[in-house]
Amino acid sequence: MSKEINLVALDIPFPADYGGGIDQFHLIRTLHHLGIGIHLHCFKYKQTEQSALTQYCKSVYYYDRIEGHAGFSHKLPYIVSTRSNDQLYRRLLDNDYPIILEGIHTSGVILDPRFSKRSIYIRS
After folding, report:
1. Residue ranges of E strands in 1-124
2. End-to-end alpha-carbon separation of the chain, Å?
């Protein structure tokens, strides 16, 4: 088992002030406590960047979520298409660590053929 992972969160999981955020934040804390190095990738929605996450993660990356008409797709649900991000995909390709996708929201990566041989897990 790898000692490092990529964790793709649907938004910024801190402060943990709603159900999904609480769940994601406690997962991060638990994995950190178990000695797993976390490379956190999260989408900015209503929250701002949170330096508190750096105490649990080896790296934290933030991505803008595409909102409004620009986020619409005829092929993907809105929650997925607004979180499809080339910069995220490039960073995920920079290493070989397993990828944990938090919710269907972040699952657009599985449609990209460059990830066909990667260990990817969707946690819904």
Report:
1. 4-9, 37-44, 59-64, 99-102, 120-123
2. 22
3-state secondary structure of 95: coil
pLDDT along the chain (124 residues), means of 10: 86 71 86 96 77 90 80 70 88 96 91 95 90
User: Do residues 24 and 102 touch, judged by C-beta distance below 8 A?
Assistant: yes
pTM: 0.89
Q: Let me know if 14 is exposed, middle or buried by CB neighbors in 10 A (0-12, 13-18, 19+).
A: buried
Pairing of strands 37-44, 59-64: parallel
